From TrEMBL:
It comes from the Eukaryota. This is Uncharacterized protein.
Length: 119
């Protein structure tokens, strides 16, 4: 390999990854859209991921942009609010802008990713 290519490869290895890089690398769980619902089973936040799988967040997460009340949740519903409006963690009193998720058997598990937004 040429010296220039080796230098580029070494630069990439030393590169510091920002939260944005982490999101770009983990598109499978990248949150694109979410909507706040009040359903018959209580308050829910619906997350629609890139692969269009619906994931419900724990109750402690509320939508910063307000909530939409519906009597029954329809799983095929496609009307979702704007992208990246932010979520608030009621338990830790933090706001999140971009969140990455691991999908668990019951609901989404929050990974340790914080956009750095203050409350």
């Amino acid at each position: 390999m040429s010296t220039a290519i080796n230098r580029l490869l070494n630069m990439n290895k030393r590169m510091e990854y920002t939260p944005l890089h982490k999101l770009e690398q983990n598109k499978k769980y990248r949150v694109q859209k979410f909507e706040h619902y009040i359903t018959s089973i209580g308050k829910q936040v619906l997350v629609v991921q890139v692969e269009d799988k619906n994931v419900f967040l724990p109750d402690r997460f509320g939508a910063l942009f307000g909530k939409k009340e519906v009597r029954e949740f329809n799983n095929s519903r496609q009307q979702i609010f704007l992208i990246y409006k932010g979520l608030r963690d009621m338990e830790k009193e933090r706001k999140y802008h971009d969140i990455s998720f691991e999908v668990g058997p019951d609901a989404a598990e929050i990974k340790t990713f914080d956009s750095g937004l203050s409350n």
